[in-house]
């Protein structure tokens, strides 16, 4: 089953997978062996093969998060061989292909680790902390009326490009997983700067950054020490410049908003 | 809590205190280094002792000194507060396999360890020079013919004799290497935390920071090394010192 590439040879791999029955239980690494893995498979398809083997053997399959399998949804959150989404730059786990590994390799697969991301089961983690941060202010709630005509709101292309780059964040949590401090600032800064750059977001920019940072702290994420692992591991390339924008927005909001709380 | 304390105890607030005090301490390093370069002057410590007497007695300097105490105090306090918070955020179950060396610099990940080495050095350093000059009063006097300076503390001699103790020199050099790495990350990090990130200036800040880290740490480390390797117990340059040192010394 070598797939579409005629030169691709099937691989046999050893997998060290984190198994944990539920949130309270103590987890551990369990070794598995998978055979005849096509280099054309995605990493998740390789895990599908493992789970089919486990099911056939009457064992509990490995729980892992996944949805679109095309790098958009941000669901597939695996810490592979000590890196968020594996060793490849700019990819999610579902975009990582087995051709990046070699026959006989041992691959260690762990869930995202952070106090704010508790493990549900095996490799599946609860990232609802991110949802609550977005609920705290990551939106535009003013009534904007009907769709305006094109170019009615003047936005320079450079600004719209930068806002769009920030908007590409898929909320996967690779930044938190890679960060020594389990800081969520790259994630929060992407949303804050996306909306702060655009006129629609200006109306609520002060309350937004105050509320999102307050929620981020309440969820127990760490504080950024500008290490840069987050940006290096981000599958969509959100840059550290956004964290500087977040700090600026926060300081300006705290200094000038009418919020005394 | 008022909005001010809430702001300053938030994750970003603490980082802003960290960077503001850190950059302030960078300015202190420059003043301290430039002043201490007078140790190299070939005058049996006259210039250095006059300078240290001024620094210890001038009312304006003594007032600014409190700013320095607060700068160090807040920088160290926030470091502990942030480390505690960040360790709690990381959680108890660590990664079995974590290759952070592939996505970040060693210095950036170990600012706490580097800072702790500098803190230990700071305590020893303050005890040995600052405490003795300001409070203990056990330093020898300068003496000499000039009635204005003869009663000054001979801090120069205390420096020279300390820098002839091998473990002391070793501690100083180790601390300066730590300081260099600390500044390598800290300088640019301070600007980033204050939100001063711009595609025109950030690359410049980065390289200025690297230069600053190397110059400051090498400058401070050169003092104990010079006295240990090339001078006698009075601070006089040994005859076997390299020729270029004699040239540099006479240029002073």
TrEMBL record, chain A:
Cofactor: [3Fe-4S] cluster; [2Fe-2S] cluster
EC numbers on record: 1.3.5.1, 1.3.5.4
Residues of the 4Fe-4S ferredoxin-type domain: 160-190
GO molecular function, one term: succinate dehydrogenase (quinone) activity
Entry-linked SUPFAM superfamilies: 2Fe-2S ferredoxin-like, alpha-helical ferredoxin
Major enzyme class: oxidoreductase
Keyword Lipid metabolism recorded: no
Keyword vocabulary terms for this entry: Oxidoreductase
Transmembrane as UniProt keyword: no
Assigned protein family: Belongs to the succinate dehydrogenase/fumarate reductase iron-sulfur protein family.
Name of the protein: Succinate dehydrogenase / fumarate reductase iron-sulfur subunit
Upper lineage: Bacteria, Pseudomonadati, Bacteroidota, Cytophagia, Cytophagales
């Amino acid at each position: 089953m070598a797939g579409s590439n005629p030169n691709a040879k099937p691989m046999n791999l050893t997998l060290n997978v984190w198994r944990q029955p539920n949130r309270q239980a103590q987890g551990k690494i369990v070794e598995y062996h998978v055979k005849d893995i096509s280099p054309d498979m995605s990493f998740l398809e390789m895990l599908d093969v493992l789970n089919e083997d486990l099911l056939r053997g009457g064992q509990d399959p490995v729980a892992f998060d996944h949805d679109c399998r095309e790098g958009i949804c941000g669901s597939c959150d695996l810490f592979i061989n000590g890196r968020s989404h594996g060793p490849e730059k700019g990819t999610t786990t579902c975009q990582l292909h087995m051709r990046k590994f070699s026959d006989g390799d041992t691959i260690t697969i762990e869930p995202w680790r952070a106090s704010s991301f508790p493990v549900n089961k095996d490799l599946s983690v609860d990232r609802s902390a991110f949802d609550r941060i977005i609920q705290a202010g990551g939106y535009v709630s003013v009534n904007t009326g009907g769709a305006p005509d094109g170019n009615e709101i003047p936005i320079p292309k450079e600004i719209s490009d930068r806002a769009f780059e920030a908007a590409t964040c898929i909320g996967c949590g690779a930044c938190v997983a890679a960060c020594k401090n389990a800081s969520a600032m790259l994630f929060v800064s992407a949303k804050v700067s996306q909306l702060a750059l655009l006129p629609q977001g200006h109306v609520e920019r002060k309350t937004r950054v105050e509320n999102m940072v307050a929620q981020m702290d309440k969820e127990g994420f760490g504080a950024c020490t500008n290490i840069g692992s987050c940006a290096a591991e981000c599958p969509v390339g959100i840059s550290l410049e956004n964290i500087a924008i977040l700090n600026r927005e926060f300081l300006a909001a705290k200094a000038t908003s009418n919020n005394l709380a | 809590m008022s909005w001010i304390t809430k702001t300053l105890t938030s994750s970003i607030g603490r980082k802003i205190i960290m960077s503001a005090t850190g950059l302030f301490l960078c300015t202190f390093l420059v003043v301290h280094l430039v002043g201490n370069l007078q140790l190299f002057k070939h005058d049996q410590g006259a210039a250095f002792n006059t300078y240290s007497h001024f620094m210890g007695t001038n009312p304006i300097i003594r007032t600014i000194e409190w700013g320095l105490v607060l700068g160090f105090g807040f920088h160290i306090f926030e470091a502990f507060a942030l480390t505690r918070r960040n360790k709690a955020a990381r959680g108890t179950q660590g990664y079995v396999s974590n290759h952070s060396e592939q996505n970040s610099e060693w210095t950036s990940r170990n600012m706490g360890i580097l800072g702790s080495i500098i803190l230990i050095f700071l305590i020893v350093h303050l005890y040995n020079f600052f405490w003795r000059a300001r409070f203990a009063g056990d330093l020898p006097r300068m003496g000499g013919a000039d009635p204005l300076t003869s009663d000054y503390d001979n801090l120069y001699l205390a420096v020279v004799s300390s820098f002839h103790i091998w473990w002391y020199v070793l501690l100083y050099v180790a601390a300066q290497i730590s300081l260099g790495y600390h500044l390598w990350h800290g300088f640019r990090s301070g600007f980033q935390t204050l939100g001063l990130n711009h595609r025109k200036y950030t690359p410049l800040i980065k390289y200025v920071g690297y230069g600053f880290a190397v110059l400051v740490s090498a400058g401070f480390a050169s003092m104990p090394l010079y006295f240990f390797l090339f001078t006698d117990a009075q601070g006089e340059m040994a005859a076997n010192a390299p020729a270029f040192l004699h040239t540099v010394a006479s240029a002073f």
